[in-house]
Amino acid sequence: MGRYVARRLLQMIPVFIGSTFIIFMMMYALPGDPIRALWGERAPDHAQMAAMREELGLNDHILKQYWDYLLGLLQGDFGTQIRSRREVTEVIGDALPATLRLTVMAFSIIVVVGIGLGLVAGLRAGRKTDTAILFVTLLLISLPVFVIGYLYQTYPGQQWGWITPVVQDSENWGDLLLPALALASLSLAYVARLTRSSIVENRRADYMRTAKAKGLTRTRAVRVHLLRNSLIPVVTFLGVNLGELMTGAIVTEGIFNIHGIGRLVYSALNEREGATVVGVVSFVIVVYLVVALIVDLLYAVLDPRIRYA
Amino acid sequence: MRGARSAKWVAGAIAVALAASACGGDDGDDGEDGASEGSGEGIVRIDGGEPQNALIPTNTNEQFGALVIQNVFSKLVDFADDGSTFTVAAESVEANEDNSLWTITLKDGWTFHDGTPVTAESYVNAWNWAANIQNEQNNAFWFADIVGYEDVHPEEEGAEPTAETMSGLAVVDDLTFTIELTTPVSYYDYKLGYDAFTPLPESFYDDPEAFGESPVGNGPYEFVSWEHEETIELARYEDYQGDNAAQNGGIQIQAYDSLETAYTDLQSGNLDIIRQVAPRDLPLYRQDLGEDRSVAQPYNGIQTITPVWYEWDATDNPAQVLQGVSMAIDRETITQTVLNGSRFPADSYLPPGVYGYQENADGTITDFNPEEAQRLVEEGGGVPDDRLVIQYNADADHQEWVEAVCNSVIEVLDIECVGDPLVDFATDLEAREAGEVQSMYRGGWFADYPLNVNFLKELYASYAHSNYGQFDSPEVDALFAEGDAAADLDATVAAYQEAEQLLFEQMPSIPLWFNAVNGGWGPNVDNVVFNSAGQPILTDVTVSE
Questions:
Q1: Residue of B27, B229, B272 best to disrupt the A interface, most CBs of A under 10 A
Q2: The complex's ipTM?
Q3: Average pLDDT over residues A144-168
Q4: Could you tell me if B537 and B495 lie in one domain?
Q5: Is there a contact between B7 and A48 if contact means CB atoms under 8 Å apart?
Q6: Cβ-based contacts of B212 with chain A (< 8 Å)
Q7: What is the dihedral sign for C-alpha B338, B342, B347, B348?
Q8: Other C-beta atoms within 10 Å of A62: how many?
Q9: Domain count, chain B
Q10: Whole-model pTM?
Q11: Where in the sequence is the domain holding B145, given as residue range(s)?
């Protein structure tokens, strides 16, 4: 087990280097010069542009730039932004708390409600409850996230006045409830569908009959045997989903005015802030890698037949 | 089972994290912020965003930074709605006979927010610092008219400055200094109305970087705090000596990623002033907020479509064809429908708030007139290849009006017309600079200072950098030169007005419409007035309750 984890951690290094390299090159290949853009429609000051390029190291060969960037990363230096001259670590640090809070909330909703609905539907397959849940989940899947977002914002927020429609303070959990619900809606529906089909399949499995035969109560059989075995595909989905929640919340963050990671990458891309984009993406890659490892380890918990040597 | 057990620990950790989050989720619900506001001392909440540069006046050249700078600093002169100037921090701004030496006298008794006095040196030192190439200030070029600029800001790449100060700036006494210009400029006081010409306190030079995060100015508001990407807070400066002292307790600038969100916040009472509503809300905002709590008025910006002459020279008489194209565009309908009143049809190369504006400068060239349009285009030799391509940047809301303009042109002239979207503004600019525009590009210009010179010389002089269409007219250049050499402001303006008339004969671009400010405010605030730069005058705003 320890060896397995160590091997996986070592494997992360080439993946990390490879993916940051690709992103770095892609940023470099984008049209539009960030230094030139500082002057807008005006006559650019070539002497000053040259001085800035020199200072930011943009005159070096692209591979040298990447090498310097990697060396910086090893020392925890993510570089500086071109316009504001702020440290990228600081910029990411400002955006991260909001994103983490939103992710934790949305993820909890997905896990609790999604698996809950799936379990109920699976156990009552073919009955009215199942049909009702099918209806609700299909509705959620078919609505794009911005429709859901604006719906939540308009009705509970503006019309009925239950809750502030736009996040005032991204450190406030109450304010984040609506965006978390919007963000969770789609994945929640997927999780519910996945859990349901998995449960329905496993309900007739041999081990369930054995469990019944040896006199286990229904609750215990479902909890210890059925649910545990059925969760493997769901956990895989949840792992990928966690990474998406952290970065793919651009639309939701926009609707509710949350200044998180998603918006940060989006605006950095528009402004050609290469260091910020690569920095955030590097961070996200680490998140994905770690989550993938945790998911793999969880398989062993869920299914004792899976062993890691 | 060794493996499984350690993995269980992992799962346990996740469970703990989830439980912790669930606990955290509860305490937020009762935390509704009760914004308490005392009368007269109330805080004005206005929409804004993250300033792109450090908050130094000579480094800020975009709207979010400017919103802070313009309230934390007071300029020497400012502009009235008709484009005339009046003094703010200056007692007087006077030129010598040939406009090459300007004497600035400051008002007595002014202090920076840290209590130190504002003196002539505060200005001179600040400008010398900003002009120095080593300090890499975005607005350094604003000082290029001053004698000695090339010593501190050499034009050659990689050259080191040969002086620390510009010889053209001289301190006379505590409250007086002079500016010597390389060439006479009869309207230099207009340039002095730009944000860059402000003073900096002594403390700035100790740590410019820290200053950029927490500026100390001489304006009606003092800087309080900047929570990046969230809010910037300003408070009324109690010792402010100017006439425009704040009528409210302070300003809270809230960052929004989208104007839609800001509008939602305005409607739910979490925002007091929105400076521009989103296209989505344009059709209804005046009804929603009420005519007396919303505004739609032109400000000092213009949108044009500009032909590139390297593609148009092939035609017999390009100017005549362009006049025809101009008449084929139904500005009235497009501004009302597609643009929902967010623009006002242009009848000139400069907006009405600019000094030197001539009503109907164009004659009839911007009127929609299909028959005349067809005649002019036909007589002029037709549009090159019978095909108009309008290049624009796709990262802003241009696609809809470009299509509408094209439809109007197609309907009237029966030629091909398409938009050419480039991913973003930087790419758009690169194509313009490289001379790779296919036929026309979207041009936009906002006043640096509200004088007709700014809208004409910077765009249509043959040597102007922003003349991407490569328009080259000796007659126009000559009139510009005459205006620049004129003895006083009125003569300068008159020469440029004459040049503007000539532009309508030569058509270096087709004026489409003037930008409008579509702002609104909530029931909490009163006396909200937007100036001709499209910004609310925040010092005058009063907060009720």
A1: B229
A2: 0.79
A3: 85
A4: no
A5: no
A6: 85
A7: negative
A8: 12
A9: 2
A10: 0.83
A11: 35-258+522-543
